[in-house]
Design a protein that fits this description.
Elements: H1 5-11, E1 32-33, E2 39-44, E3 49-56, E4 63-67, E5 72-76, E6 79-80, E7 87-92, E8 97-102, E9 111-117, E10 123-132, E11 135-139, E12 143-147, E13 152-159, E14 168-172, E15 175-176, E16 185-191, E17 203-209, E18 218-224, E19 230-237, H2 239-271
Parallel strand pairs: 2-10, 12-19
Antiparallel strand pairs: 1-3, 3-8, 4-5, 4-9, 5-6, 7-8, 9-10, 11-13, 13-17, 14-15, 14-18, 16-17, 18-19
InterPro entries: Ig-like_dom, Ig-like_dom_sf, Ig-like_fold, Ig_sub, Ig_sub2, Ig_V-set, Zig-8
Protein name: Putative zwei ig domain protein zig-8-like isoform x1
Pfam family, one: V-set
């Protein structure tokens, strides 16, 4: 679920901006924010993000969340001011956290968000949301040529993900493959596998086709739960047919050469 509320609560103490509303003896006398600096939250596209703001001694003041890039007010206390249903502000009384939740995070949600207290002057803190977008890559060429009867292994790899995909679905054309119902076919997922780039968070999905047949030719798509699909085109070549085609082609080539030689010889004789 991206950065969970528990992780947020554990690390907030050094993350938000201090208020300057202090009395002469050094104690806060009004609303203030706990922590200093800009708090960074990293989450994966499609998951939920939780942006923290720890407020103390709020009194009768309100807490607002603002998206910095366009100064759009997202929420005031628990009341939303944006039509996007993915955004919600909530308060946990025992902790003092006002948290902005963003459901099903999109790449465009990345950026700065500001938590504001309605004091005069205004007190505010910022949270920087980083959105990780995993990528799916094929292992090998996008066009595969195999001999009928051979074992075929099609692999894809998911890189750059904070969390491994919960599943990988394979398609043959537009039809989803349920490998447990097809004799000789199976799929597997290897999570947390180090790859050549040293990424230990990579996940490899494999589709294994035993004794490939001509009808198994076509497009195969690897579709992970957390990254875009990729497609490979499989060409299953019948051994006897290909051999016959090569023999026929060679015979035709020899016939053409023989004809050309005969015509050339006749031309030379007629000249002499």
């Amino acid at each position: 679920m991206g950065v969970g509320v528990q992780n947020v609560l554990a690390s907030i103490s050094s993350s938000l901006i201090h208020s300057k509303l202090t009395s002469s003896n050094g104690f806060f006398t009004g609303p203030h924010l706990d922590g200093h600096g800009i708090f960074n939250v990293t989450t994966q596209i499609g998951t939920h993000a939780y942006l923290p703001c720890k407020v103390k001694q709020l009194g009768n003041k309100s807490v607002s969340w603002v998206r910095v890039r366009d100064d759009h007010i997202l929420a005031v206390d628990r009341v939303k001011f944006i039509a996007d249903e993915r955004f919600q502000s909530f308060y946990v009384d025992q902790t003092g956290f006002w948290t902005l939740q963003i459901k099903y995070v999109q790449a465009r949600d990345a950026g700065l968000y500001e938590c504001q207290i309605s004091t005069e002057p205004k007190i505010s803190a910022r949270v920087h949301l980083h959105v990780v977008v995993p990528r799916t890559e094929l292992v090998g060429d996008p066009d595969r040529y195999v001999k009928a009867g051979s074992t075929v292994i099609i692999r894809c790899i998911v890189r750059g993900a904070l969390e491994p995909p919960s599943y990988i679905i394979w398609y043959h054309g537009s039809h989803q493959l349920f490998t447990e119902n097809r004799h000789g076919w199976r799929s597997q997922i290897d999570r947390g596998t180090p790859d050549v780039d040293g990424d230990i968070h990579s996940t490899i999905g494999s589709l294994i086709i035993e004794s490939a047949k001509k009808r198994d030719s076509g497009n195969y798509s690897c579709s992970p739960s957390n990254s875009p699909p990729v497609t490979v085109t499989l060409h299953v070549i019948n051994g006897e047919s290909s051999a016959s085609a090569v023999t026929s082609s060679a015979s035709s080539c020899m016939e053409n050469l023989s004809t050309a030689f005969t015509l050339t010889l006749m031309l030379m004789l007629s000249v002499t």
